[in-house]
Amino acid sequence: xxxxxPATFRKLIATRASSKFRExxxxxxxxxxxxxxxxLLVKNKYVGIxxxxxxxxxxxxxxxxxxxxxxxxxxxxxxVSSGPKTPxxxxxxxxxxxxxxxxxxxxxxxxxxxxxxxxxxxxxxxxLSGNTAAISLDKVGDMKPGETVLVTAAxxxxxxxAVQWAKLAxxxxxxxxxxxxxxxxxxxxxxxxxxxxxKEKLRDVLKNEYPKGLDVVYETVGGDMFDTCVENLAxxxxxxxxxxxxxxxxxxxxxxxxxxxxxxxxxxxxxxxxRGFFLxxxxxxxxxxxxxxxxxxxxxxxxxxxxxxxxxxxxPFIGLEKVADAVDYLYSQKxxxxxxxxxxxxxxSKL
Length: 351
Description:
The chain is an alpha/beta fold. It is 26% helix and 25% strand.
């Protein structure tokens, strides 16, 4: 297998810090590395698009980062070469979460790879988006059966898992979305009360239908959505800040909260709390939670929807050249499920 590998491969890099992803990324060609002890060289098949791709290219995750930066967070891949002292062999399907996934090949630490039954796009939502949902709801949100859970941006890659994870836990789930077809999508995955915020005011829905408030909020939007969620927390309610996508494309990356100045008097009388969650602080939980999601998926308890851009004017998303289109598509609010880009369509037929 190793003798058939190309001498070079392509990867996507950000040349400078900016939230204007398309303007600062470019494809570069680099030598194909040989894996050393404990390392794997994998051929990426599917890579995931995330709202934070823009945060990373803007240098917000690491202000001291030196450009150019390798982009992309996650991939479903196939092992093509393995170094000494690794449990993997060429041909094995794996999934990983590591910076630099937007590349045709990737050198990774074997300990970071999670074995898969086969190479399948539907597995990709589980490692980053799914783990963000499942781990945060369980360990930070302290979600319990019978509670009322609100998931914002519920029809997206992480939202779809958050909705289903909360339902599997025996909760009543509210989900926000931006269109009627997404309302139907949410109903199909078990959401009890989808809210198309372009047709209904979330504040009114919560006030009229949920006067006791929200026990857990899975919040990814920020801005006015964050404020609305804080206002409607129940006694002992927990709001998990996953992100604030509504303003990632702005220069600052976030919008000031109107409730921030009054947050203490809003939370104290309810014994409520606002909690942050960053997936990389929970790396020890990644493999167990991926395995749990895979088990539920194989049992038919958890659905996985991927969006390959078939309905996007510039789709489908095949090849590194389409990554920027896929990022734009995510921010267009037209996608459903996890947006993925397929790589190595030509390489697969040659290797």
